Protein 1
Amino acid sequence: MRGRKFQACGPVMAVYYGEEFNPEEMDVEVCMPVVESSVKEVEGVRKLPGGKHACAIYTGPYSRIGAAYAEIMKWINQSGCSIAGPSFEIYLVSPADTKDEEKSVTEICFPIGE
């Protein structure tokens, strides 16, 4: 990918692998959405699968984001859905955009199945 130019088309994201949140041993993939035509058959670039997702928009500091995750999990459990893949966050307003943590905006998503 050295020297290759990609055209970004959205905010930075992070995909969180693993069953439980463990800050000591996290498997995280940081992602940047890019225009598909700029990455055809480039090694190391992949397309995230589409489908149904349970999502919530959280506004505030990351230190309190756990409550939003709890609400999404509650909805998933009550609706009879199952988690169908790793969760991910989309940083709509990130620390790079604002110095005020209270103004950070994160979309939290879980792929779901019936």
Protein 2
Amino acid sequence: MAQNNKRTNDGSASPPPLKRQKIGAASSSSAVSTSAAQILQLQQRLQSAEDEVVRLQERLQLQEEENQRLHALNTSIKEGFRRYGPSWNGKTTDLDIIDNLTRLSPLATHYNTNVTNQFIRDIPEMLWWQKILQPFLNLEDLSILRCTNTFFQSYWESVLKQNLIRVPQGCPTLEKAMALAVVFSERKEYTEADPLKVEMDEGVYEITDSNYVPYSEDDDEEEGDDGLMHVPCSHITFVGKGKDQTTILGGFYVDGKIHVKFEELAITNQHGSGLICTGSETNVDVLKCCFKCDDTGMGVYSGATVTATQ
């Protein structure tokens, strides 16, 4: 060691110290390179963390907006239930709609409750008859619809004034015509000069709703007449298009009714009588009719009065 130090002091270069310096320089360069790579990785991780923080803040902002919307909706629903009741469906007139209606108000035709039928008073009567009322020519339906609109009530009243039930145009069957005749009689008093008329078009009409059995149920020999329709009111006329064109399958039973008329009909009953009249007050006129029945064509009992012509 003394010789080496001496040689160094003499100015001679010693290889071992130079080798140690090169190794130290290489180690220092490697450490600097490693530190730079770590710093770069840390910067990348920091940038990723900052990006994630930004995304979380955006999601948090959206969540807060959604919470505010739901809170407002919940408040609106509670307010709607409070103001409009538990059946409120979330639909009501808001300010925007009111503003639009206000702006359109000069262009609108306003409804005045004091004016009757103001929206239909200018419609031609022919249009009512041929287009609007066409689906409602059935008087049974009209009797229900008359409560929904004042015009239908007016039309119903005009029908009552006509004293006419048309089969099948107004009522599809005789049974329905009889039910309607009861309604008409309750709303208007008919007379001999102004009777209710049931007008039947050409064709065959079968009576299916019979409600009269003239004989006792205990009678073994007679089981009664089938297909007899009870005439429910007085001052009523049944008229067809002629005994060769309008046929009734069944028969009629008149008890205690006055001024009942049958005109231009063929009454055929293969299971009983064609016309049974009973009761001292009963008054029946038959004009230009034909009876073809399995039992009695026309039976008059208990003081009833019947006039038959042609």
Protein 3
Amino acid sequence: MPSTFELNPTFSFTLLGTFVIHMWTRPSRPAWLAVLIVAVALRSACIRLMGGLGTYYGVWWISWGAFLGLASLMVLATQIARLPARSPDRLPDFERKSYRQTFYAGAVFPLCSLLIGYTVPLTTWLRPRTYDALLLAFDGSLGFQPSFVLGRLLSDGSNAWGLTTIVYYALPLAVCVLYASHLASDRAGKPQPVPILALFLSLILVGFALYGSYPAVGPKHAFGELYPWNPPLLAQIALQPMTVPDAPRNCMPSLHLAGALAIWWNSLLWPRWGRLLAGLFLWTTIFSTLALGEHYLVDLVVAVPFTLIFQAAWTVAVPLTQPDRRVPLVVGASLTFAWFVALRYGLRLFLISPAISWSLILLSVAWCLTLEKRLNTAARARIA
């Protein structure tokens, strides 16, 4: 009998991020070896007890992330416990503090992922009806359906589909890489303009709260029989809430794009090759969110001012009294609120002409990118 157990790929990538954070601290060779031994043992036990790890694309190597991350946390916990409580010198206290900081840094994102996993079904129960038809109508007002068009490129189930899916899963790993790099810089005495952990935790918390105020699931889940080959005509879309069972209400705004955008904005201190990878990850995230049918173009647009709110709120290197920080905060919040209201109560305005929809998209995105650039320039000038 084949196993029905599926080791969640997003959670595996999250725990792989834990492993990256641990390795970024340059642990000793015995610690490296202990992590590898424990990871192999955990993987072997899981396969033996569960009969397998899953059947999704890339499961053989993606699943290693879960065991490497758990092994890192176990090794760190053991190192903390084995240090003597008291010592005539201060070295054990320093080591314990370092181990604890690494343990907490590595554990925070998996814990967040678990909490999110438990709250997603709650939003489905609380909001059985979604606003997917309204978002689909806005995208249709652009003259075509972006998610349907890109979805056709992956409809054959080829390796391109698998690689795109991996990019969609890998956001937690990319966040952990950014966090690890900033954590290492802090420990080296190089001040960072933005506390990365606070930025991402607050972004996730508020983002999931907004999922309840504007529930949507994405075209693949809401219009499964039509996606991606038969997008409904704009005149055929009923502008009213619709019932969509058993699908997470995690579409509006896109936290996937928000996370990738925050990584791009906060990778300016990386070397050029790192910046190129961050930019590539941003563009492939835009493609994957649409092509996999998980998001609409408009909820990606709303993610831009939404992310700007938190980028401005947590750029502590610039005083809040300075316009370079205060203006992006106000504009980001105002645009996010305006988009939510317009997409709920003013959708017929966008249906008048594609020029209206495209103009508002370009204005919102260009304005936010300009303000973020000024904010980042001011922040770098203060820490230089």
Protein 4
Amino acid sequence: MTHSLLPVVTIRGPTNCPVCGKASYSRSGTHPQCAMEQADAGRKQRLKEERLAAARKAKASGSGTKAWNMKQCPRCKAESHVRKKYCVCGHHFFGS
């Protein structure tokens, strides 16, 4: 009796992406979009910290942009909504 030797082949299923945890069919095991997100994470964090620092600095110096729906009273310099007719100090915005 002759036995034929069959090659033993192991079939691997898809591996899970280490970033998102879903099945990945890429050679490295990481989705390309996940790899880009992972590579950009440090840069995104640095830019976020720079924006927050700039906002804190502008707020501390008082040179921040003024909201479009606010106006400043010429008498007491208080901020009021644009629809207000009178300031808390009694100034009448629309009168003479």
